[in-house]
Each structure stands twice: as C-alpha cells, then as structure tokens.
Design brief:
Structural class: alpha+beta
Radius of gyration: 26 Å
Number of strands: 25
Strand order of the largest sheet: 6-2-3-4-17-16-15-10
Length: about 375
C-alpha cells in the first residue's frame, strides 16, 4: 500500500470543516452525502459537501502529496478538532484492489491523523463515490457584499413559502435592486442599490444561509442555467435554482393609499404580544384595528391595547397578529424606532415601509373572528 502524507493547519481545517458540514444533510439514504470529500492537490486542500441540490467547497493551504477520499463520521472529527493546534498531518493509505468485485460495504483506504501528541486512525471511503460537481455556465456575474446580503435575507426570510408545489416561492427572488419573499399571505422586500440584477432569478434559502461563511469578504455571484454560485476564490457555494416565473411583486403592492401613519415599532409589537396572550386559535382569530385601538374578542372575553398614534386611522381592518409581528421584526432588525404604515381599504393589504424595506400583510375578514 502506498502512503501519502499531507499537512494543513489544524485550526484552518477545523473552520473549513465547520463551514462545509452546514451543506451536508444530517441524515441521508446515501451515507456519503453526510460526509466531507477531501482532496489534496499541489499546495491546496479542498473540502466539499453536498446534498445534490446545494454544494459548498472551501480551499485551504496544504503541503504534501496528492490524494482524495471521503471522511467517515465527519461531524465527530469536527468535534475533536478543538483538541488540535498547529500542523496536522494526514497520512493516507490506499488499499490494494480487491481480487473480487467489491461490495457496497468495502472501503478503500485508511487515514491516520497526527497533531502534536494526539493521533487517530480511521477508515475512509473511495472518492469515486462522491458526486461530480455540476458544470457551470454563468450568464450574469455580480459583485456581492455577503454580510449585507445575509442581513437583508435574515430580515425577509419569514415570508418565504413552505409550499413545495411552488418552488419559486420557496426561494428568495432577486429582481432589479431588490430581493423578495412571499408566501401568499404576506410579502417582504429589501432594496439596496449596490446590487442591481439584469434579470430576475431565484436562490434557495439553504444557499443564503451559507453567506456568513465568507466572513464579510467580497464575492462574485454568478447566475446561469440551473445554478447560482457565490465564489471568492477560496469558498464556493453552488445552488440549484428553480426555473419559471415567480410573483410580480409590483403588481401585488398597492400603488395608492388613503391613510399613512407613523407607528412606534416597539409600542405596536408589545401591544400585539399582549393581545397574543389571549388568542387561542392564531389562524382563525383576527386582531381588529379600529380608531387606533387594537383588540380581539373571543369566547373568553374582550381585550384591547391603544397604539401611540398622532391621528387614529379611519379605516377599520383586521389581520393575523403573528403575521404583523413578523413584519415589524423586519424593521426592528434594522434598529428603527418607527415605520410608516399605509392602508387604502378594509380589504386591501397593509404595508409597512421605511422606503428601503417593505412588509405587506393581507387583511383578515373580521366577520371570521370568534
């Protein structure tokens, strides 16, 4: 058996492995998808994880020979990496080819890790089991600030749909200088002129959640065909994106309003949380906004809270408390004190906006309240 040795920095490897495993499923019928593919080549060690829809790859410096394999129990290795520091040596030995056709259980090598006075030995799987990364044909390339984009995503993700029959609505939609999320009952938008796209496209939330892996370093977003790629040279995130059209957000947002009020976000949110204590069926009990007073009435009693408003609204309207709370949290995340609330009719959507972000909540027919 041939022994191949390579060396990496233990802490760099630990950080890379931690990023990778966020893209690997914790459970899969294909056991190797739960693991990390390791490839030593030249002066680099490349770690890759995938669930076949999402890929994450990190490259760190390395020295030594060339080899590749699939770890077994990658998460256990991550947990013990905290005991390693300095140079970590990988010593890989490939098994001799079996005389008979190998079974599914056959593994093709052994790995020894040495770091300081600590050492471990494990079997590893053949790299040939690992799926090939998809070929990429970018049609558009944009420069992205991953920290800013991640914060925008975190603010609007509450409005993403969980309806698998509408895959586009399960993703974040990028269009002009906005990103948006919609689930049919509420809608959330975030505007930023630093990223303006040529054509609309969709990116799944699983990929957006990996943006912190770039640790604030500027990256390129490439979009084309069936994939979108975030890449800064050492970290790459590839996501399969759905085809087809999503919602035309501008058609869903009212163009004219009859009332506009500046609301204190904390006051509005605290009033809704107070009323929420008395709501027994959150999907069938509406909060009523009438003359600046929020109230609910059900078989248990009547409860109300008066908002701090310069003028009471003339429109009487109902809505689900937790939907409005989610919309308010979008602006609380920006550390704002107030937000503009726009209304046009009892049966028209309620809009919260600060001119950059927007949250839309559909009204709930008050006659359905208990």
């Amino acid at each position: 058996m041939t022994e191949i040795k390579s060396v990496v920095n233990a802490k760099e490897f630990q950080r890379a492995l931690e990023k990778m495993l966020k893209a690997a499923p914790k459970k899969s019928r294909l056991a190797f998808l739960q693991e990390t593919h390791i490839c030593f080549a030249g002066d680099a060690c490349t770690l890759t994880c995938t669930d076949l829809e999402l890929w994450c790859q990190v490259v760190i410096p390395a020295q030594g020979g060339q080899c590749s394999f699939i770890l077994n129990d990658s998460r256990k290795l991550l947990s013990v990496c905290k005991y390693f520091s300095g140079d970590m040596e990988f010593s890989y030995q490939e098994d001799d080819p079996p005389e008979t056709f190998p079974s599914k259980e056959d593994l093709d090598g052994s790995l020894t890790l040495r770091c300081g006075n600590r050492e471990l030995h494990q079997r590893v799987s053949t790299a040939g089991l690992f799926p090939v990364m998809p070929a990429l044909e970018p049609e558009h390339i944009y420069t992205v600030d991953p920290t800013s984009l991640s914060k925008r995503f975190e603010r609007i993700k509450y409005a993403l749909s969980n309806n698998a029959s509408r895959p586009c609505d399960q993703c974040v939609q990028f269009f002009d200088n906005r990103i948006g999320a919609v689930d049919g009952y509420r809608l959330a938008l975030s505007r930023d002129d630093s990223l303006c796209v040529d054509e609309p496209f969709f990116i799944p939330p699983t990929a957006m959640k990996l943006l912190p892996a770039f640790e604030g370093e500027e990256c390129q977003l490439s979009v084309g065909g069936c994939h979108a790629v975030f890449d800064n040279g050492s970290i790459r995130v590839i996501a399969r994106v759905p085809n087809g059209g999503g919602l035309n957000f501008d058609s869903a947002i009212p163009k004219e309003y009859t009332e506009e009020h500046t609301v204190d976000i904390t006051d509005f949110a605290d009033s809704l949380r107070y009323l929420d204590q008395f709501i027994f069926n959150r999907d069938r009990e509406a909060v009523r906004l009438d003359g600046g007073v929020l109230s609910i009435k059900n078989v248990k009693g009547e409860y109300s809270s008066k908002l701090k408003l310069a003028e009471p609204p003339k429109i009487v309207i109902g809505f689900k408390a937790y939907y409005m709370l989610d919309g308010l949290k979008q602006f609380q995340a920006k550390k704002l004190d107030t937000v503009t609330m726009q209304m046009s009719a009892p049966n028209a959507p309620i809009v919260l906006t600060d001119q950059e972000d927007l949250a839309l909540v559909l009204p709930y027919h008050l006659k359905k309240a208990a």
